[in-house]
Amino acid sequence: MLMVKDVVLGTSVPLSILDLAFIGPGQTARDAFAASVKIAQRAEELGYRRVWYAEHHNFASIASSATSVLIEHVASKTRTIRVGAGGIMLPNHAPLVIAEQFGTLEALHPGRIDLGLGRAPGTDATTTRALRRSLSSADTFPDDVLELQGYLAGETRVAGVNATPGRGAQVPLYILGSSLFGARLAAGMGLPYAFASHFAPDALEEAVAIYRRDFRASTQLQTPHVIAGLTVIAAETRGEADEQLLAVQRLRVRTLLAQGRPLTEEQADALLQSPAGERVMQMLTYAAVGTQAEVHGYVAEFVRHADADELMVIHPAPSLDARLRSIELLAGSEADLNSAAGARRAHRLPEQDRGS
User: Fold this and answer.
1) CA-CA distance, 131 to 58, in Å (whole number)?
2) The pLDDT of residue 345
3) Residues of the chain below pLDDT 70
4) How far apart are CA 148 and CA 145, in angstroms?
5) The dihedral of CA 189, 190, 191, 197: what is its sign?
6) Residues of 105-136 as b/e, b for ≥16 C-beta within 10 angstroms?
7) What pTM did the predictor assign?
8) 4, 40, 72, 269: which has the fewest C-beta neighbours closer than 10 Å?
């Protein structure tokens, strides 16, 4: 299994991938799914632990909305890598339906399926209503997780109702979050906690500290397990990586701020300089961008900063070839990782910028 080594502490953590099934300009969802298969297959060859897909709705550039269907497609094209949801937005679904879907996946691909659970709708308020859900659905998230857990453990909390498939499938659950709420819930339930620091960095340190402090052992997990999200753009040269980063920033402005309006590069750059654009830039607070040595150096520091047991990496480069190369360069070798200790950082960690 691929591990990234902390060059200071000498410890190692597994690497995993979050894939949004990106639909590039002029591409179709079919193209995105073909790319996701290639990414998962290459990650498997390189020893990544798992690849996850996130439930989003009403984003023209993201094709992972029918998350369980995509998981099945990728799992059927791979052999050993774990495949799962990072995550299913549980307020959008009845827990029984998710138990049946992931019970089916586990039956088809035993021992390879993960189920990460999020509380947000994964979309805007209008689309939430189109999903026949209300914004208050998130209020029952803890109870819904317990109900889902019961179905998968074969200990239903709803008398006379069992998930078939799913009953007793023991698909491992993960709590996803970007706030202290998820940290407390994961700790109280004794579940692994995945923090979305790749796009919501603000509460990373406090959330992880609370999770570790309050963790209570469970049947699934005896000790805390923190998965931290990280954006990585690794390229052969610093110039290539910087060009890819700018393309990613422009794409996010178009996706999040333009509301479907076409933008020239100049207009996108102007938006990036606006107050609204600052939020887009903040999403990339934790981003390893540069050559292999620069990225490895940043990643080793981030592992310690996040107190992470595993990294969930998103490679958002604009082309499939560039994403695959970033995945390969991050994988590297232990010698590469050890030589990264003195590498120049393209994007320094926030506490370094504060002078600590």
Assistant:
1) 11
2) 42
3) 4-11, 122, 132, 135, 260, 333-356
4) 5
5) positive
6) bbeebeebbbbbbbbbbbbeeebbeebebeee
7) 0.90
8) 269
